[in-house]
Write a structure and sequence with these properties.
The complex is a heterodimer of chains A (305) and B (273). Helix content of chain A is 37%, strand content 20%. With 305 residues, chain A is α/β, with parallel strands linked by helices. Chain A has two domains: 155 residues, Rossmann fold (3-Layer(aba) Sandwich); 128 residues, Rossmann fold, CATH 3.40.50. Chain A starts with a helix and ends with a helix. In chain B, strands 1-2-3-7-6 form a five-stranded parallel sheet, with helices on both faces. In chain B, strands 4-5 form a two-stranded antiparallel ribbon. Classes of the chains: A alpha/beta (305), B alpha/beta (273).
Chain lengths: 305, 273
């Protein structure tokens, strides 16, 4: 997905001269085409994420669109106050892109696992929080991010994630996408883990349960109408996020449901308020922490039976 | 060279800034009066002689960019900006007040204020971004950042210092209101910045060191920018925290306090207003 993002950005940047990339010494093998094509709109500030964000803010304040880009927590948590005070409070056109959200960098360890980002970015006023599920969403989200006036946080996948959608999509920030229809229960995912929800729905189908699968690519602003529709027209909701259980997608959905006064079977799948204290690959860790399609299907079935 | 009349006018303005800062911080018994008092003379020269800014057109694309990184000294900056006509003078009396126009740290919601600060170490990175963009686009305006001792403790400031030199941002001027006092003590006892000038030279900046209360020296130092072609400019302005009010001068308390009600009259008398 990161290649899709970089290629799309490069294409947009050929036409839109406002686009600047501001990096903190991360992006090997991906950012070179941009750096070579637009040396005057590219800067590597060195390993200095606070400065990266401040510099990006200064560049954006001069009428540009500045993209900060790094992996995991480096462009978010390391420089959170710059994002809050400089970028969000001034509502400037800085777009924060991370590669490899959730457990994507598996065996690299906790420093490289971005598992609180959705909650923290979601708490910032004026910030849009987006986590595309597959390549087509990633491409569309890149266009949407550039078109949007103001800060955006974009959680980008790390590898060759399988396609969730067949064919074209109508992508808009704040409008979830139904990847599969169903009446018995809804599985809502955000980011690349949504594909596991889709696989879980396939497993459920074999057991006679028709699950709706929603890609909630925009965690903020969240699609309230779609959540309420899922609550009213299906038998329950399970949220799936590669993130701590607190404050992310599941939290956002719960907020919508409770404020709407809707009472339905509801369950959040995510990390259970714990860091990863074991070593393993992305896929292995996903299985260990309950993100396997089998476990998602089991959780969903348990909720409505 | 400044004429006697100019010096007289500058002195009048500096007193006005100090008196306003004393008045404003006393309104709601807020703090940081010492930080406004120390930079008053720098502000006078900047706004009277150096900065190319237009109160009636505060967003003009060719303006010099000026960021106050020591945002807690907002009262002093608001005073001279009101004097220059960026916004009505009666706004000063609403400082820190409920439904007031001016909050305790500098805010971009006020006309002419380039950037909001309040947490230290944010100003210089943003000015580096602005200067970099200006340079790449061949713009003629300059970018100024006024900082404090405490600002120079922040890692983000040093990240920006290194980047500015790396990219030869000679359209950038950092000025340190070097009053030697920070939030919990004297700078030399907390984080000693000395040898400050030498350090900055080694970091690739062109450095000047002046008496930050001497109008001639301030003006001379800023009359030619950059100090050295191809290098960002660093002005170390030696100042006195709380300058002009003897009970505040060179005290850590002046970072937190205002001039108390029972000392106001004496303070204004000392300033000569």
């Amino acid at each position: 997905m990161r290649s899709v993002f970089n290629k799309t950005l490069l294409e947009i940047a050929k036409k839109d001269k406002r686009i600047n990339m501001v990096l903190a010494d991360i992006g090997y093998g991906e950012i070179e085409p941009f750096a070579q094509a637009f040396p005057d709109r590219f800067i590597n500030v060195g390993v200095a994420e606070q400065n990266m964000t401040g510099v990006a803010c200064g560049i954006a304040m001069e009428g540009n669109i500045a993209i900060t880009y790094s992996i995991a927590n480096f462009p978010t948590l390391r420089c959170l106050e710059q994002i809050r005070n400089d970028v969000c409070y001034h509502n400037v056109n800085v777009k924060i892109v991370i590669i490899g959200g959730g457990l994507a960098y598996g065996a690299l360890g906790v420093s490289h696992q971005s598992t609180e980002d959705l909650a923290i970015m979601r708490a910032l006023p004026d910030m849009v929080v987006v986590a595309p599920a597959d390549f087509v969403e990633a491409e569309a989200a890149t266009y949407a991010m550039i078109e949007h006036q103001g800060p955006v946080y974009y959680r980008c996948g790390y590898k060759k994630e399988p396609p969730l959608h067949q064919g074209r999509i109508d992508f808009k920030f704040g409008k979830g996408l139904i990847a599969k229809e169903g009446k018995d229960i809804t599985l809502i995912g955000t980011g690349t883990i949504t594909y596991h929800a889709y696989q879980a729905a396939e497993l459920l189908k074999k057991q006679g349960i028709n699950a709706r699968v929603v890609s909630m690519h925009t965690v903020k602003p969240i699609d309230k109408d779609l959540i309420i529709d899922c609550a009213k027209n299906t038998g329950g909701i399970v949220t799936v996020e590669e993130h701590q259980i607190t404050g992310g997608l599941g939290g956002a959905v719960a907020e919508v449901l409770s404020e709407a006064g809707v009472s339905i079977p509801f369950k959040r799948i995510g990390l259970q308020d714990s860091y990863v204290h074991i070593v393993g690959s992305h896929d292995w860790l996903l299985d260990k922490f309950g993100f396997s399609p089998e476990n998602i299907a089991k959780t969903a079935k348990g909720l409505i039976k | 060279m400044l004429t006697k009349k100019q010096i007289c006018d500058f002195e009048y303005l500096a007193v006005k800034i100090r008196a306003d800062a004393v008045m404003m911080t006393n309104l709601q018994h807020s703090g940081h009066v010492g930080s406004s008092l120390s930079m008053a003379d720098l502000l006078v020269v900047l706004f009277e002689k150096v900065l190319n800014v237009a109160p009636k057109n505060p967003k003009g694309p060719n303006r010099d960019r000026f960021i106050l990184s020591k945002g807690h000294a907002a009262a002093g900056l608001y005073s001279i900006m009101a004097e220059k006509g960026f916004f009505p003078k009666d706004w000063l009396e609403t400082y820190y007040c409920d439904n007031g126009k001016l909050c305790g740290h500098i805010s971009h919601h006020v006309p002419g204020v380039e950037f909001s600060t309040g947490s230290l170490g944010h100003g210089l990175p943003v000015t580096v971004g602005m200067a970099l963009d200006g340079k790449r686009k061949g713009k003629k305006h300059r970018v100024f950042c006024l900082m404090s001792d405490g600002d120079c403790n922040e890692g983000s400031t040093w990240e920006a210092i290194m980047l500015a030199a790396q990219h030869k941002l000679d359209n950038l001027v950092a000025i340190v209101d070097y009053n030697k006092v920070q939030a919990l003590g004297f700078s030399k006892d907390v984080i000693n910045l000395e040898p400050f000038a030498e350090k900055m030279n080694l970091f690739g900046w062109a450095v000047k060191e002046i008496d930050g209360h001497n109008f001639e020296q301030i003006l001379d130092s800023l009359s030619i920018i950059p100090f050295v072609k191809g290098k960002p400019s660093f002005l170390i302005a030696h100042t006195v925290k709380g300058k002009g009010i003897s009970c505040m001068e060179n005290t850590v308390a002046s970072h937190y306090k205002c001039v108390a009600d029972d000392k106001l009259e004496d303070a204004y008398k000392e300033l000569g207003v």
